[in-house]
Amino acid sequence: MKKLQILGTGCAKCKKLAENTETAAKEAGLDYELVKVTELREIMGFGVMATPALVVDGKVKVAGRVPEVSELKTLIGTQ
Prior knowledge:
This protein is α+β, with helices and mostly antiparallel strands. It has helices at residues 12-27, 40-45, 69-75; strands at residues 2-7, 32-37, 53-56, 59-63. The chain contains three helices and four strands; from the N terminus they run E-H-E-H-E-E-H. It has a four-stranded mixed beta sheet with strand order 2-1-3-4. Helix 1 packs across helix 3 (69-75). The longest helix is centred in the N-terminal third of the chain and has 16 residues, at 12-27.
């Protein structure tokens, strides 16, 4: 099971990244857990200075932007 984490305080871009990530994972038939990390201290613990960010299995894959579903499939390792 892949652990997908969305880092962000709940802004519109953070919600869009969560939505796109979930769509990408479902379309790929991925076994995953989606966790939203909203605590600033936790986000900074990943070394991320710009949100939203996507963390896959503990590794930051993208920060500061919202990729399209097709790019997210690549980032989460389904393609």
